Write a sequence for this structure.
């Protein structure tokens, strides 16, 4: 059993801390936010993440997981300290690593004996060296450390599953001693023969960016193919399915939509593009993926506007789904933000419903009407737009939707509604890459 401290209790820190305690280690999750730690101690999980509640409870009850605002003590007690604080997008596309630097300085003052210091936050390639230097600056006598980069590949909404059953674990470490300790941290995975890649630090940092950027690229690509499908009468779902059956391509992340969002893809691909420019090696494919994503978001607004006679003014639009994807209350960079703002700018009003993300969106856009069901959102509205593929929208009763709307206009940006049924019921509708032209 190792003693672990995780600094930062956001999605990554909390899921990793709880997951590592489930592997049998003693974990302190520490954060400077008194309110976050207070609610965690009281048994409340500050984020919506399926399965996290049970994972935390189980390990708190077993005495393996605790929470604290005392970061100094958390560092003193640990064999391994994970840095898992936020790295939001800063100026000129670069990630803002000030929180990571601040934690590194705190670690530096508090190192007693040997420790592994491991970064889980997504930091720009090459930052490991900077963190190492910061930690070395004030290290007290007798203090010793090795630095490790251990990027996280978890997805919001399935983060617990992704942490406990990962496809691979990447450990960037130049010291064998540190690598062996990290292997011990992930012992149950190692024993189960999950691939554990030992790389140098820059490689581990690059793997994280290269993976996220590739997935974002895949989405932008299928979105552009979807547009071509619309122009040619092809069905993008069949195209994506057949493409995915080629093992070299894989079916995952080929689902067209209103443009990707979230706290990771937009930030990470911008950071990779900024890094590439700094190195005078512009990464054109990724720059194009970024641009395509912006165009895709605007295209969704145009699609809706076109169906509403090119005029939002004085009209009410029901927005169904606010989160950037299902199973999360996170609305960061969600395409619904642009949709709502442009409808507002066009003089329309919004009635919005998300099964769990209404409150998060209220913080960003307070001046629209939030309601508690899709029926309420759609009642007497001039159109309805699905922005997030929540299961409850998949099962939506379209006959009922038709009676609720004052105009039967539907934009399905996630392609979850039955085209046959929408056609049969006489809806005016659009989707992404599936408006099939029937050939005679
Ligand atoms: C992403 C990566 O998938 C994780 O592996 C990574 O660890 C994480 O970022 C991170 O860097 O922390 P996440 O942002 O939680 O995870 O969400 P995804 O499931 O990747 O979805 C991102 C966006 O792409 C969503 O807006 C989603 O709707 C969209 N998407 C995804 C599509 O439009 N089509 C798809 O086929 C897949």
């Amino acid at each position: 059993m190792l003693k672990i401290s995780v600094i930062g209790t956001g999605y990554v820190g909390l899921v990793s801390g709880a997951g590592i305690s489930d592997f049998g280690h003693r974990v302190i999750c520490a954060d400077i936010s008194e309110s976050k730690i207070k609610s965690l101690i009281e048994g409340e999980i500050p984020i919506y993440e399926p399965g996290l509640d049970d994972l935390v409870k189980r390990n708190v009850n077993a005495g393996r997981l605790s929470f604290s605002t005392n970061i100094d003590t958390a560092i003193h007690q640990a064999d391994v300290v994970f840095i898992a604080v936020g790295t939001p997008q800063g100026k000129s596309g670069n990630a803002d690593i000030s929180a990571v630097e601040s934690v590194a300085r705190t670690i530096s003052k508090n190192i007693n004996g040997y420790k592994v210091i491991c970064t889980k936050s997504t930091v720009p390639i090459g930052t490991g060296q900077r963190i190492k230097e910061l930690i070395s600056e004030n290290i007290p006598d007798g203090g010793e450390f090795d630095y490790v980069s251990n990027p996280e590949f978890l997805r919001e909404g399935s983060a617990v599953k992704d942490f406990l059953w990962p496809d691979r674990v990447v450990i960037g470490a130049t010291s064998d001693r540190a690598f062996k300790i990290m292997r011990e941290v992930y012992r149950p995975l190692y024993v189960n023969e999950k691939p554990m890649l030992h790389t140098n630090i820059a490689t581990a940092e690059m793997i994280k960016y290269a993976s996220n950027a590739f997935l974002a690229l895949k989405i932008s690509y299928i979105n552009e193919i979807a547009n071509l499908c619309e122009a040619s009468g092809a069905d993008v779902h069949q195209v994506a399915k057949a493409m995915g059956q080629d093992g070299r391509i894989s079916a995952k992340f080929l689902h067209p939509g209103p443009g990707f969002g979230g706290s990771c893809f937009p930030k990470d691909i911008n950071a990779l593009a900024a890094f590439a420019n700094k190195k005078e090696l512009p990464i054109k494919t990724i720059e194009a993926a970024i641009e395509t994503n912006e165009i895709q978001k605007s295209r969704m607004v145009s699609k809706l506007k076109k169906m509403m006679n090119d005029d939002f003014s004085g009209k009410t639009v029901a927005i169904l789904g606010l989160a950037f994807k299902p199973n999360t209350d996170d609305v960061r960079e969600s395409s619904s933000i642009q949709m709502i703002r442009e409808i507002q700018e066009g003089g329309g009003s919004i009635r919005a419903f998300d099964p769990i993300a209404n409150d998060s969106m209220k913080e960003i856009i307070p001046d629209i009407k939030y309601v508690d069901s899709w029926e309420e959102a759609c009642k007497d509205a001039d159109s309805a737009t699905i922005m997030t593929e929540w299961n409850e929208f998949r099962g939506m009763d379209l006959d009922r939707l038709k009676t609720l709307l004052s105009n039967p206009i539907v934009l399905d940006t996630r392609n979850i509604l039955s085209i046959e049924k929408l056609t049969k019921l006489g809806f005016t509708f659009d989707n992404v890459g599936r408006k099939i032209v029937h050939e005679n």
